[in-house]
Design goal:
Number of strands: 7
Radius of gyration: 13 Å
Structural class: alpha+beta
Largest sheet: 7 strands, antiparallel
Low-confidence stretches: none
Strand content: 25-35%
Mean pLDDT: 96
Length: 133
């Protein structure tokens, strides 16, 4: 399956998310994304640095203090542990999960349930890790 197919079927296709992207674990390239969901190079590098700290470090502290920017929008981080970062902006939010070689970045809208959205992203991350990615 292509990276774009993972975004289209395993993220957005679940009905629990409205946007998604898969970026490299180094944060230097976008492998696949929903049309119109663009992360800047600075956002990707910073996201990679945050998830690399496994929940503890100066970048994690900065995210808790200042939020995390995804697609030009600021989200308040409410959970950063191990491989994931969860952020909210009103009734919408982002779920960021690191696998071995990639980082999944997904967005849920006002009509989505955060728990179902999180479960969809974490399930894809588990699958990719078991597949060596």
């Amino acid at each position: 399956m292509s990276w774009q197919a993972y975004v289209d079927t395993s993220l957005v296709g679940t009905g629990h998310l409205d946007k998604g992207a898969i970026i490299s674990a180094a944060g230097d390239s976008t492998w696949a994304a929903t049309p119109g969901f663009t992360l800047s190079p600075e956002e990707m590098k910073f996201i990679a640095a945050v998830v690399a700290e496994n929940g503890k470090g100066p970048n994690v502290d900065k995210v808790f203090a200042e939020g995390i920017h995804v697609g030009g929008q600021r989200y308040v981080a409410f959970n950063i542990e191990g491989r994931h970062v969860y952020g909210r902006q009103g009734k919408t939010g982002v779920i960021i999960v690191k696998t071995t070689q990639a980082i999944l970045v997904a967005h849920y809208g006002e009509n989505h349930t955060a728990g179902n959205s999180t479960q969809a992203v974490e399930a894809l991350a588990d699958y990719l890790i078991k597949s060596g990615y």
